[in-house]
Amino acid sequence: VGGALCLLYDVSRIVRMARRWSGIAVFFQDVMYCAVVSAVTYGMLLVRCSGVVRIYPLVGELCGFAVCRFTVSRLVMSAAKFIISAVKKVVAVVNKVIFAPVLHFFGSIFAKIFTFAKKINYLLKNYLKETSVMVYNHVKLHRGGKCDEGEQ
Question: What pTM did the predictor assign?
């Protein structure tokens, strides 16, 4: 059980290595890991010792964790570092070769569409302003651009 819990901790360490986490996120990951370990240890004590807390299963679990931590865990973590760095390099190359040109292409298309929409918007605004049937233009035409004395 201790070895399995150590490998579970290695999984959480690999997740932390793959991405940068804030201190609060790491704290909650550790709290969740402690809750899982507590539940597994309690279940082991229920099955093996009929729910009685004895020292030898706990020492055995601790020894299994320590043995796994200093043997298998070192191999797993070194392999994980290599795999994570290789995956990050592959993702960088894929991003550079595939996604960057596609994003550039769509960005240029959207820029042209945006420029066209701005021109249409400008033309529509100017067309509406030049119309002589609008209320303020209509009133100014009939008054000669002067206000009546009653409207002041």
Answer: 0.58
